Amino acid sequence: MLNRLKYIFVLMLTVWVVTVNGQQVKKASNGIFLLRNGMLHTVTHGTFSGDILIKDGKIADMGSSLSDVNAIIIDCTGKHVYPGLIDAGCRLGLSEIGSISLTKDYAEHGTFIPQMKALTAINPNAVAIPVTRVNGVTTVFSKPEGSTFPGTGAVIDLFGYTPEQMSAGSEGVIMEFPATGRRNKWDRRSEKDIETDAEKSLKKINDIWSDIYNYHRMDSLASAQKLVWNRNNAAMDAMLPVVRKEQPLFIEVNAQGDIESAIKWVKAKNIRAVFSGVAEGWRVADKLAAARIPVITGPVLSLPHRENDRYDAAYTNAAKMAKAGVKVALRTNNAENTRNLPFNAGFAAAYGMGVDEALKAVTMNAAEIFGIDQLYGSLDKGKIANLFISDGDPFEPGTQIERLFIRGWDIPLESRQTLLNDEFLHRTPGLAR
Amino acid sequence: MSNKIYAFICLIFAWMTGADIHAQVSGNPKSFSDTYLLKNCFVIPQPGQLLTGQDILIKKGKIAAIGTSLKAPFDAVEIPMDSMYVYAGFIDAYSHTGIARPEQKDRPKVSDTVYPQNEEAGITPQVHAGDSYQSSDKSVAEMRAAGFTLSNIVPRGFMLPGYADLFNLGDEPGDRMLLKAETAQNFQFTPIRGVYPGTVMGVMAKFRELYKNAELFAAKEKLYKDMPTQYNRPEYSRELNALTDVTSRKLRLFVRAGHTRDVYRAMKLSSELGFDLVLADVKQGWHYLDEIKKTNTGVILSVDLPEMEKTKTDSVSSKKQSPFEIKKAESLKAYLSQAATFEKAGIPFAFSFIDVKTGDIKKNIRTMVENGLSEKAALAALTTYPAQLMGVAAQTGTIEKGKLANLVITNKPYFDEKAAIRYVFVEGKKFEFSEKPKAKDGGKYAGIWSYVVEIPGMTQEGKVTIIFENGEYKISMYDNTRPGDVITAEDISVEGNRITFSSNVNMGQPIHLNFDLTMEDKTYSGTVTVSGFGAFPVKGTWISKPNNL
Amino acid sequence: MLKNIIFITAIFISGVVQAQNILIKNGTVLTITDGVKENTDVLILGGKIKQIGANIAVPKDTRVVDAKGLYVMPGIIDAHSHIALDAINEFASPVTAEVSVGDMINPFDVAIYRALAGGVTISHAMHGSANAIGGQCQTIKHRYGVTNPDALKMEGAPRTIKFALGENPMRVHGEGKNIIPNTRMGVEQTFRDAFAEGRLYMQRWEDFRKGITKESPEYNLRLQTMADILRGDILIHCHSYRADEILMLMNVLKDFGVKKICFQHVNEGFKVAPELAAFGATASVFSDWWAYKFEVYYSTAYNAAILTKNGVTTSINSDDPELIRHLYHEASKTQRYGGLTDEQALALITINPAKQLGIDDRVGSITVGKDGDIVLFKHHPLSVYAIPQMTIVDGIVRFDIQKDPDDMRMEVSPTASESSYYQEMYGEEEDSCLQGFSEWLMDSKTK
Q1: Residues of each domain in chain A carrying CATH 2.30.40.10
Q2: Which residues of chain C lie closer than 8 angstroms to B198, CB-CB?
Q3: Fewest CB atoms within 10 Å of the CB: A79, B166, B394, C240?
Q4: pLDDT tens, residue by residue, B66-120
């Protein structure tokens, strides 16, 4: 009872703060919430009308006619409830302003630097974070890039003030597979030079890999024989979970030939792998499916990578892979506009994937790829309460997201962009002084 | 002796710093007669005609007579021509023959890139190609050996490089070989990046402005000339003055227009401003045949063709061609049949030879013929049409009495794959080409070798590359301190284990180096003779196979 | 396969396809200016919209397109793009009014086709934003298939010119070359100086014409163009971001009596919406791009909605060969960010950009007498599931999702290999107005 009073008080306080002092930033609140009579898009077990009880940051219960005397009731009649969307690859929090390098933290110097941890550099107060989550994106894989082993990405929830509060408990080492494509239209290297460059890079990777393997062997022997092995090699240490198959290696690879090489490479090295990018996955979808390598692809809204490709090659890529049986998650590969994840999913749905599969690609499939599907990716009892209420299909731009929960916190649907709208829609003073 | 050593070191230094390397000084014996009688030849007096059993009398640089059983004057050198074919000397309508490529050095710094001086912006219409033409440049001898007796030479440069001049490709010093000065003004869509105008659109805007100002300049000059007391003297501009030759339509403007849009842009400027256009060095002009024909635009097609891949003749694999490969093959076909397409459209054209290796000229023209160009039109493009275009048709382009004795003589019809050029006459001067004896050793000395030249007091080291290609040796060398400056050897002779060759270095005066080497399996030794200074020992060892084979 | 190739070759040779007569039957017609008409036919004869109504009889030699279940809307217009151009920036001077991208049209650019596949029939091919006063722009119709560059130009479209404020001209000239402008103060004075010179130039020629001076002045294409702007013969389209610089330019224009301006990008336009409306300036914005540089950090995706609701004629543009393919989707974002109605949202990519380019009497709505520029959509164009089915320009079908082959290149390299995969295409979220800058910088440093 006391608890309930406390919550009502907090709620009243929030309302008071908002109404009395409009300039005060709205704050998230937590508690027990009962979402009543919404259309629940569970992803894992269908779509039906029902209730959800949020308690201790989790989905405490799901069903019909739930009740909890302490709960704040949210009437969801005519509304839709979705699990929070997951962007499986972006730079959110690692980049504030694109053209100012000192505000960018995703590309460290060095070619073999897997020990660089995105989680420590993600700015919890990045302006783009609220901008992103108000569109229903609650969780992202934010990752370093720009070299062969650029570092370790982190899955984070888009709410919290410290890395510990934000972490979703999953990290992944990134590798960029040597690319045989041209870097851009102005890349005038000869075909042969491109091939040689790629061969050199691959040889370098293989050399590193034999080092990694030796390091792992020595480390294993040392611990088996209870020997003390004095060393300081953070980069090698970061690779141990990968070489021991405790974690997948996230391999960025895009052109058809490179994907084919990467499939062979993964097999030869006997590791778990997730491919990312995979822009030409549609050309080798069967091979990807046969190799059972999951894929993170996107942005869906991209140009074809060859002049002679059909205009919709990128739109249809995800669908073609999914149809072949590849587990596909989507990404924006963006920073400030990670908010467009639902629209990317919408395009993938329109161009052959279908709405259900596209929804999976931005929820459950991503959760499975990151090994967090016990707690993320669907509306299921016991999962973390990352979810939102909308007045319709969240992939449709015309739809409004009306309420958002991350880890059970009721997040105000506010960002600097909404605040600017509030201030300037009807500017005062107008033209007068 | 010490003086000589000093000079030699200077010489090496000049070599190292990449001074101009000149072709060999003519070694022909001094001529005592300018009269020749070519006996019993097949004559192609103009495209599409063939006369048999003809004699041609050449005197004082002209064709003095042509007919059967001509009587030889006492001073005539008689040359039996049995079964040889005589054509009018070929005319290259657009090239930089005889103008050495500028050294690869940084361009002078432009102090104001926004408002540069005309020259800094590549605006030099007052320049003449002849000012930098040198008959001793290697390219002249090469073009001549390919059957060319006249080149319409365009200055190297940028947007407005200057006047073209028409030169006989003899070996006598420049001006004596000039047939016609100022055959055309030239324009190209070539900005100097970083300096205004820095893009093609900037170049076009600047050209429009210059053109209008040249018209205004001419008008003001005329007013002042007519009424000097009434008007202020207009500010003189050499650049605008040169351009008035175009605006007054005294001269045609040759616009270098390789690719589709360049062709279109050139035609657009012409129709907008009203000058007489010749499209030059056209590589991709087939989209605009109607417009070209309608406007009577002159055309010079490039002989530079895209490289063909060696296609397998396997019919099974060609059936499996992807749509990509089919489109690509169609595109290639369009390039190779451009000349045929122009011929079919009834548009006459000449040929340009920029970026074409002289060794490829005939091969490429034959490729055009294989792709539908008639031999007659090909020959016209090499002779009669360029003569008309340059306004010298009365002097050359066909074999007729009174015309210049510019002839090319082959052992088989020119377009025959195996035909070889035996003689070229340039204004009556004979150049003879014998079939090169092929080396018979299979190229066993091919490889990269070191060299060490022992000069008293110092040692010079470098590398010699010996290549064996199509039965011929090619030799080049460079100094270790300046690997970028490669010197090509000439007069290569291989007899048994003895290799001799020469090369030339120019340092104010041409200096001749003669190498005489005795080869062992993996080493060699010998001497290098420096003209006027003496001989020095040279030795070296085998390093590796040549890497460009 | 072979049939497809023959099809392409056919366009190649014939250059211009004959105008077709088309009757689009039974579609849901989004007229833009006259509401939505269900089960309605649109007849295009000789490239123009002849009739809109129910059960229109099929004239002879007319192709009938069944649009049952489809949405029929006017061709989408992009007020800011750089496709179909061989060059974008004349970097070499802060004022280059004399150059024109109309000279740089590349009708072979496959980006034109890809834009058609997104329903875009007209784009404003612009000079870049390297210079305070850049070059003249060109409104083009997406007649993909013609080889004559001028055939892409929209006949009778008014002349336009690119201006640019802020970081880009400051970076290229101030930082890059140590000349003015290095600040927004310098940018203002660059405009004032160019306008003043243009005015003097006009005067010099006027004096000559009147016989006050006897010798003709020198011809100067740059100042001639400035004079044309002063006379109101050229519409200004100005790359801009910050509120202060937008106000600055309006003040400069007021001082020189220039009235017609469309601010491009104008990310902070929402802050000065009342001033823009009062001046009569229009705005062409991104739906949601921001934070790619400092001057767009304080942006909001509500920009288009705020401007619209404050009475500023607003459009949504692409500035990008990727984004241009889904402007209908970009427009739909104004429904999430600002709740614009369908009609308002669709106007952002049709009639409004037409107004900004001065071609609204010709295109931008389905109206009798206007050009036969039409796009057919499966699903409503503001739905994320919308897919363009057919795009018609001047009554000629230029995109047909059913019939077109995959490979639509017109210009094919005779030597390039099939493996020409490009790691990065354009489409990074950044204004592509500075395209070529790094290459240029490299060049100029070595010279």
Answers
A1: 22-83+378-433
A2: 90-92, 440
A3: B394
A4: 999 999 899 999 999 988 999 999 999 999 999 998 876 566 788 899 999 999 9
Would you call B209 and C2 a contact, using CB atoms and an 8 Å cutoff? no
Where in chain A is CATH 3.20.20.140? 85-376
Q: CATH class for domain B35-88+397-427?
A: mainly beta
Say whether pLDDT at C4 is over 50: no
Interchain contact, C273 vs A424, CB within 8 Å: yes
Single out the residue of C129, C29, C80, C28 nearest to residue C327, CA to CA: C80
Interface of B with C in 333-392 (CB under 8 A): 334-335
**pLDDT value of residue B462:** 86
Band (B19; pLDDT cuts 50, 70, 90): very low
ipTM over 0.85 threshold: yes
What's the CA gap between C446 and C72, in Å, rounded? 54
- At B502, the pLDDT band (50, 70, 90 cuts) reads confident
Q: Give the CATH number of domain B3-26+438-548; options: 3.40.50.200, 2.40.160.20, 2.40.128.120, 3.40.50.1000.
A: 2.40.128.120
pLDDT tens-digit profile of B197-241?
A: 999 999 999 999 999 999 999 999 999 999 999 999 999 999 999
Closest by Cα among B88, B284, B280, B256 to B188: B256
Beta carbons of C4 and C318 less than 8 angstroms apart: no
Does the beta-carbon distance from C214 to B192 stay under 8 Å?
Answer: no
Whether C179 contacts chain B with CB within 8 A: yes
Domains of chain B, residue spans: 3-26+438-548, 35-88+397-427, 92-101+127-190+253-269+276-309+349-392
DSSP H helical segments within B337-443, as ranges? 338-344, 361-370, 375-382, 384-389
Of B459 and C13, more confident: B459
> What distance in Å separates the CA atoms of residue A377 and residue A367, rounded to the nearest whole number?
5
How would DSSP label each residue in B459-483?
Answer: EEEEEEEEEEETTEEEEEEEETT-T
pLDDT for A249-275, tens place per residue? Answer: 999 999 999 999 999 999 999 999 999
Pick from B114, B201, B206: CB nearest C179: B114
The predicted-structure confidence for C404-429, as pLDDT tens digits, reads as follows: 999 999 989 888 776 567 766 443 44
Q: Using a CB–CB cutoff of 8 Å, tell me whether A337 touches chain C.
A: yes
Please, what sign has the CA dihedral across residues B100, B104, B110, B116? positive
Contacts of C227 in chain B (CB under 8 A): none
B416-420: list long-range contacts, CB under 8 Å, 24+ apart.
Answer: B417/B366, B419/B85
pLDDT of residue C211: 95
Contact A82, A394 (CB under 8 A): yes
Q: DSSP alpha helices (H): ranges in C22-155?
A: 110-116
> What's the predicted TM-score (pTM) here?
0.88
Asked whether residue A17 carries a pLDDT value surpassing 50, the answer given is no
Answer yes or no: is pLDDT of A136 > 90. yes
Please calculate the CA angle B232-B236-B237 and round it to the nearest 5 degrees.
Answer: 150
A402 residue type, one letter: E
3 state DSSP class of B254: strand
Q: Smallest CA–CA separation between C360 and chain A, in Å?
A: 27
Query: Is it the case that residue B43 has pLDDT exceeding 80?
Result: yes
What's the CATH fold of domain B92-101+127-190+253-269+276-309+349-392? TIM Barrel (3.20.20)
- Residue range A22-83+378-433, CATH number: 2.30.40.10
Q: Considering only alpha carbons, which residue of chain A is nearest residue C430?
A: A98
CATH number of A85-376: 3.20.20.140
CA C70, C74, C75 angle in degrees (round to 5)? 105
Distance from CA of C394 to the nearest CA of B (A): 23
